[in-house]
Amino acid sequence: MFTLAGMDSARTATASRTPLRALATEAVHAGRDDLARQGLHAPPIDLSTTYPSYDSRGEAARIDAFAATGAEPDGPPVYGRLGNPTVARFETALARLEKTETAVAFASGMAALTAVLLVRASLGLRHVVAVRPLYGCSDHLLTAGLLGTEVTWTDPAGVADALRPETGLVLVESPANPTLAEIDLRALAHSCGSVPLLADNTFATPVLQRPAEQGARLVLHSATKYLGGHGDVMAGVVACDEEFAGHLRQVRFATGGVLHPLAGYLLLRGLATLPVRVRAASANAAELAGRLAADPRVTRVHYPRIGGAMIAFEVDGDPHEVIGRVRLITPAVSLGSVDTLIQHPASISHRIVDAVDRRGAGVSDRLLRLSVGLEDVDDLWADLDTALERPVRASGQY
Question: What are the residue numbers of the active site?
Answer without folding.
Answer: 81, 135, 200, 225
